[in-house]
Amino acid sequence: MLRVTKEYFTCSGDEEKQLLDSGLSLGPVTVAYETCGSLNEAGDNAILICHAFSGDSHVAGIYEDGPDDQPPGWWDCMVGPGKGIDTERYFVICCNILGSCMGSTGPSSTNPETGKPYGLDFPMVTIGDMVNAQKKVLDHLGINKLHSVIGGSVGGMQVLEWCVRYPQMLRSAIPIATTMRHSALAIAFNEVARQAIMADPNWNKGDYYNKNDPDLGLAVARMIGHITYLSDEAMRRKFGRNLQDKEDFSFNFDADFQVESYLHYQGIKFAKRFDANSVLYITKAADYFDLADTTNTRESLQDLAGSHSKFLVISYSSDWLYPTYQAKELVQALKRTGQDVSFCEIEADCGHDAFLIPDDRLTKLIRGFLNGISTSQTAI
Fold first, then answer.
1. Of the candidates 92, 154, 234, 284, which lies 20 to 30 Å from 45 by C-alpha distance?
2. Can you give the residue ranges of every domain in the chain?
3. pTM, full prediction
C-alpha cells in the first residue's frame, strides 16, 4: 500500500498576503498538500489532482504514521502504482482548497489579527483564489509545468480555472462531471443547504467555535447535498421503499424508510468531520464560478484562444447535478477556442458521484489519455 505524508506550505515574506478576487487580502495562507511518486529529473511528469467540495488532500494511499487498517485516500482506486494515474510514472500532487477545514486556511483557522477563529470575518474566496493558492504550492515544489490537471465536480471547476489562469503550465486537462457555471437548480440546492446551516441557533452568525456546533443545520445541509450526488435509479436499487428495521409504519415522524435512515446517517457523519462555515464559503465559491460569461472583466474560456493544451471532458449519463448537456457545452466552448478536445459520456446509473466509484472504463480512459500526452513535449 502506498504510504503518504500530509505536508503544509505557508506563504511568507512579500507573498504572505494573497490578493483575492474580491479585492481583499488574506494572509498568511497555509495550504495542506500531499504528494505521491517522484518528480523526474526534467520536472515534467507532475499531475495536479483537484478534489471535490468536501474532499481533502488525501487522494491516495494511507498515512505513513497511521495504522495499517486506516481508510485509504478518496481516489485510491485511481491513483497509485500501476493504476490509472500511475505513481511509478507520475508525480501526483493534491492540495486542500482554500476555505476548507482540512488543513488549509479557512473560516475555522485562527485570525492572526484577533487570535480567534475567523468565522465570518474570513473573506469570500473564489475558485480562482483556490487555484492561485495551489499555484504557490507548485512554485514551492519547483514545478513550472504540469503533465495534466485532473478533477471532478468542484475539482473540475478548479481544472478549468487552471486552464484559463495558467495555460502556459499545462499540457493537458481532464475535467470530470463538472460545468462551466452553476445552473439555477444547482444554486438553489446550495442556497437551501446554506439556509439550513444559518437557521441552526448554534450557528450564531458564524461564531460557534469552542461553543456548541450547528450540527443539526450542517447535517440537514449534507442530506440536501447528498441527494444531488445520487440518481433516481441508484436510490431505487439501493433503497426502494424498504422499511428500516420494522415491519410496518411507525405512524409518527421516526425514520420509517431505509432511505431516511441513510440520509440521517450521512448527515451526522458529515457533521462530525466538516466545518459548517466552510460549507457556506465553498458552496458560494462554486455558485460564483462562471467561465461561460464573456461580459464581465474576469477570465473566461475565450482566453484559451492560442493555447495548445489537450482536453478530455468526461460526463456521466445519470448525473443530474451537472448533466451531460453542460459537458457538451463545455466541449463546444473549448473547440471554439481551437483546443484539442476529446469527450466521453460514461453510461452509469450511480449519479454525480460515479467518478469516485471504481470503474475500469474511467481508469482506461484516463490512463490512455495520459499516455498519449508526450512528457517530452514543451508546455505552452
1. 154
2. 3-181+290-371, 186-284
3. 0.95
